[in-house]
Amino acid sequence: MTSEGPGSAHRYRNLILGAVAILLLAMAMLTSYSSAFGHPRPNDVELAVTGDATTIVALEQQDALELTVVGSPEEARAAVRDRDVDGAVVLPSPAESSAVTTYIASGGGRAVGQAVSGIGDSIAANIGTTNETTDLAPLPGNDPVGSIEFYAILFAGLGAALGATIFGRILGTVDTSSKFVERSVVLVVYTAALAGLITLWIDAGLEAVTVNPGAVFAVLWLTGAAIGGAVTGVAALGGTIAALAMTLALVILGNTSSGGPLGIHVLNDFFQTLYYVFPQGDALDLLRSLQYFDGAAMSAPIMRLGIWAVGGILLTLIAMLIRNRREAAARQQGGPRPGSGAATATAPSSSGPELTAVTASPTPHATTSAP
After folding, report:
1. DSSP string of 333-349?
2. Do the beta carbons of residue 313 and residue 229 sit within 8 Å?
3. What is the CA radius of gyration of the chain?
4. pTM, full prediction
5. How crowded is residue 42: how many other Cβ atoms within 10 Å of its Cβ?
6. Is residue 4 within a helix (H) or strand (E), and if so which, with residue range?
7. Rounded-to-integer distance, Cα 324 and Cα 273, Å
8. Which helix (H) or strand (E) holds 184?
9. How remote is the C-alpha of 84 from its chain's centroid?
10. DSSP label at 220?
């Protein structure tokens, strides 16, 4: 505890390799986060529109928009509240002098909300009127950027992944049913403690929880259990190095592909595709649905997080089955174990000549003389 150890046998070679690995990791994180969050712009923004057909036809030519035409302003509002779209625009007819009405939901991603509001401003300027923007899911005053949910998911996933990797080194390989139960209990208890601490901080410390804290705790617990279970399964199948590789992928690509505080539809196509690969995006959407949308659109994220958790369980069981079969095959090929079966030593045969060991006397025979 008071020393860093004797050092490596190949000091300078390992020093260079370690430095290069750390530099590559740092650059990978910098490249991923700056590419995802550095230049946000509308990309496949899902927009509900109603009103003037001519303007709608013009909007359909915009590659950055995915339009859903609805029949009334009430349907447009409902589509935003139900998380079917990112925002909505109500277009006045040319004969009307009323303003464009834009509905946004900052709770689904602040940058996406700003992008939708900007679209409404642009449409209003083109048709010579004004734009009135209404935020149907505003962010709380204690989290005006909408970053606290992102950081809660980030550290819940990171803590679960690192915990699962460390537990594998401490508790050993999962190769029996009793060890499987032990690891499962440890992971469930640990992720519950992790989720509880994060919930306590963002609720009591930051006052950023807008709903029942128990619901936020449940989302963070599910997130930790899904990610921790998946890392446990990968470690059981591929070892600690595979688990660390997966943890790095979750940190470098999973967190950025969630959209962070910006929202998924201001990221490029690469990160939008990764959104469906990694679990952080679903976890973040699930937490936002609870916080700002009265629990709308929760079923799909819950199902995908459940797939991650079940996938981890299956990988662990498969690894345990493969290991047990290999050990059984090795025992069959190795024959009887040492000390069993035929005797290891036999007594000398009575019909053979007996060998007598002759040893020299260490002391010369004494001689006596006649008196």
Report:
1. HH-SPTTSSS-S--PPP
2. yes
3. 34
4. 0.84
5. 20
6. none
7. 38
8. helix 177-200
9. 25
10. H
